[in-house]
Structures are given as structure tokens and as C-alpha cells.
Amino acid sequence: MKYSRLYLQDQEQSKSESSNPGMHSLLQGGYLREIGPGLYGIMPIGRRVMNNITEIIRKELTAIGGEEFFLPLLSPGELWRETGRDQVIAHDLTPSQTASLDKSKIKGLATDAGGRTSHTAILAHALGIPAIVGLGNITQQIAS
């Protein structure tokens, strides 16, 4: 593919709040695009770089007799229950529901709604419970 036909978007005036110079360079070079606070999309040139790096790692793994494997995004609940810990998956949690979670029995939580500054995320962080919020349709994915 010719460079002139490559979909590039230069981010000359990066508005990222990141103090990380590497992140700033990736944004400015058009490899990533900030789509929301703390959320980044990988641009086509960034995906090509990732694919090239992945291919190099695969070749090196093969050369030393290594093997590539993938871990599941979601693991069966039985594995969590064996250790007496489970995850909470919900459309949304109220602040009182989040505050009432028993940290010793919860491995983490995931919600369809919310964001980095939502009450659920802030309370979960304060309680030391790992949380992923704003997933959009996690409850539908779990149901199917």
C-alpha cells in the first residue's frame, strides 16, 4: 500500500491529559485517538504496527519452541466459586449497592453503564474492588 493512500490522522494539537510522553507521541503520530477520558481507539496505522510486533514475537516464540495461547475474556463462575470469590455483573449499581459489597467475597465488578467518574467506579476504587464500568452490553453477552 502506498503511503499516500494510508489513512493517517495527525494529532498536532493533542488534547490528552496524559503526562506520559510515550502516550503523547502515539496520539500525536496518529497511532491512537482519544475517544473519551481514559479511552483510546487504535487507528489503522497503530493496528499495522501492533500486527508487525505480534508477528515478530510469534517468530521468536517458534524459534525457541514456545507456544502461543489465549486466555478467555470471561472465565466460568465455578472457578471463582471454588475460592469463595465471585464477580458482580450488572447493568448498573447504585452507590448503596456498591458500598454494601463484601470485598472478601467479590473478585471484581463489571457494569453496562457508568464511566470513570461514576459513583460505582469511585466507590469500588475506594473499597479496593476492581471494576470495569461502561461496557455497554456485558449483561447481554453473559446471558448468551
Structure summarized in a few sentences:
The chain is built from six helices and five strands.
Describe the protein.
It is built from six helices and five strands, in the order H-E-E-H-H-E-H-E-H-E-H. It is an alpha/beta fold. The mean pLDDT is 77. Strands 3-4-5 form a three-stranded parallel sheet. Strand 3, helix 4 and strand 4 form a beta-alpha-beta unit.
| Largest sheet geometry | 3 strands, parallel
Oligomer: single chain
Percentage beta strand: 15-25%
- Helix count, per DSSP? 6
Integer average pLDDT: 77
Rounded to the nearest angstrom, the distance between the terminal CA atoms is 40 Å
Q: Could you estimate the helical fraction of the residues in percent?
A: 25-40%
Helix-strand pattern: HEEHHEHEHEH
Low confidence ranges: none
Shape annotation: extended
- The radius of gyration computed from the alpha-carbon positions, rounded to a whole number of angstroms, is 20 Å
Structural class, by secondary structure, is alpha/beta
Number of strands: 5
List the strand order in the largest sheet. 3-4-5
Summarize this structure as a short list of keywords or feature phrases.
5 strands, single chain, alpha/beta, 144 residues, two-stranded antiparallel sheet
Produce the secondary structure layout:
Elements: H1 21-28, E1 32-36, E2 39-42, H2 44-63, H3 77-82, E3 86-90, H4 95-99, E4 106-111, H5 119-127, E5 131-132, H6 138-143
Parallel strand pairs: 3-4, 4-5
Antiparallel strand pairs: 1-2
